[in-house]
Amino acid sequence: MKKFLFSISLCAFVLSGVAQEETKTEAAKLQDEADKLKALQADTVKAWKLGGVISVNGQQVSLSNWAAGGNNSISVAGLVNVYAKYKKGKATWDNNLELGYGVIKQGNNKKWWKNDDKIQFSSKYGHQISKNWYATALADFRTQFTNGYNYPNDSIYISKFMAPAYALAALGFDYKPNSHFSAFIAPVTGKFTFVQDDSLAKFGAFGVQKEIRDPNDATVITQHYLKHREEFGAYFKMQYQTKVMENITFQTVLELFSNYLHNPQNVDVNWSTLTTFKVNKFISATLATQLIYDDDVSVTRSSGDKKGTFGPDVQFKQVLAVGFTYKF
């Protein structure tokens, strides 16, 4: 009987030890899995680089008996330019969102007039094929927030949200020697123009096919208008950003597009810059410029020998603002 009890006790002791070892082993496995998960999360977070500029600016001018002349004015503008960049192994993914909107009121005018309006999102994914070269796909979309007018005439709009809107899809190669510069060359590119407004599309605004009626019978339509336009060609995009001085940063983007199927020699140009002058942590000035040329877009020319005529011309915008800025 004593031997039997001893055997039972010995078996229980051995089984208890085995169970404890198995418990420790399971706990160790769970801890290893948790450590791997934490390492993976930390590695994923480390692969992303986030940053940008957010600013709200205002300006007020008040004149009384001012010999040089001028108008009282007040303006408010907002700017958001943020990016999210991913790099891990041979993969890179760059995303950028730029929003801008501003209004101004001058003199005795009781209405606020728009002087800045922009929505643009760009996404670029690349796979490294050599030291500084990546096989890359790019998508870009841009439009505006609200109606645009040819001031002082503010009764008839000449643009609006999604009229126009531009979408671009490109396949090519991206040269990235460092984190400050990239040059994207895409021999295969589709560019799409949308004018989601019947009255604007009917007159062929922004290069879409306009409506044409029979000159002898206005009720007969010989060509129906379209709300979209497709182009196929080559695309080039250069981006550069740097810290000029301790409190000054500069970034620029140059985009070129040539339509293989229609006047390839007439290259579309879109060149923008953004310079930030930091005074302290929250106060700074921003200078933004944009130059556009598209021979398919007609405007009322404001200078030169062709002043007052309607046709394609260089478009230029400059926005200088001082106020609250948060840079990260």
Describe the structure.
This protein has 328 residues and is of the alpha+beta class. The protein has a single domain (52-327), classed as Outer membrane phospholipase (ompla), Chain C (Beta Barrel). Helix content is 16%, strand content 57%. It has 2 helices and 18 strands. The chain has helices at residues 2-47, 198-202; strands at residues 48-61, 73-88, 91-106, 113-128, 133-143, 148-150, 153-159, 165-175, 181-194, 212-214, 217-223, 228-245, 248-259, 268-278, 283-293, 299-300, 310-311, 315-327. The relative contact order is 0.10. The mean pLDDT is 85.
Secondary-structure topology with pairs:
Blueprint: H1 2-47, E1 48-61, E2 73-88, E3 91-106, E4 113-128, E5 133-143, E6 148-150, E7 153-159, E8 165-175, E9 181-194, H2 198-202, E10 212-214, E11 217-223, E12 228-245, E13 248-259, E14 268-278, E15 283-293, E16 299-300, E17 310-311, E18 315-327
Antiparallel strand pairs: 1-2, 1-18, 2-3, 3-4, 4-5, 5-8, 6-7, 8-9, 9-12, 10-11, 12-13, 13-14, 14-15, 15-18, 16-17
Notable traits:
alpha+beta; Outer membrane phospholipase (ompla), Chain C; 2 helices; globular
Brief digest:
The chain is of the alpha+beta class. It has helices spanning 2-47, 198-202; strands at residues 48-61, 73-88, 91-106, 113-128, 133-143, 148-150, 153-159, 165-175, 181-194, 212-214, 217-223, 228-245, 248-259, 268-278, 283-293, 299-300, 310-311, 315-327.
